[in-house]
Amino acid sequence: MARKKDKAAYMISSVAEQFGIHPQTLRLYEREGLLSPSRSDGNTRLYTDEDLERLEVILQLTREFGVNLAGVEIILNMREKMEMMQRQMQEFVETLNREMELHLKAPEPPSKGGLIPVIRMPSIVRAQDPPDRQ
Q1: Which long-range contacts (CB under 8 A, 24 or more apart) does 31-37 make?
Q2: What structural domains and CATH numbers belong to the chain?
Q3: Rg of the chain's alpha carbons, rounded to an integer?
Q4: pTM value > 0.85
Q5: 3-class secondary structure, 73
């Protein structure tokens, strides 16, 4: 099992007391895959600030919205996928912006003497409506 190395870590008893839940509830959330606390060398569960934020979401979904644990799992997975997609979209936009900046800074290609002739498209002129026939 991989061990997380984060700054703050809280033991199961303090987390249970802080959130007003039984430690067995935290163990259940871990068995269901909703939480994954790291472990100390003595195999004690250690909850990080990220784990506590996730626990807040779980408790809000179950207490305030009445969502069952299967629903909580689906919602959390969807949130993670949405965050991943948002990061990918942000990276795409940043890449586009960099490419546009490079394109705008690049000198214009020569119009004559190139390997591929540049064909200028004629301007589009709107045709006038034919006169009404009377």
Answers
A1: 32/69, 32/73, 33/73, 34/58, 34/69, 34/72, 34/73, 34/76, 37/12
A2: 10-104 (1.10.1660.10)
A3: 30
A4: no
A5: helix
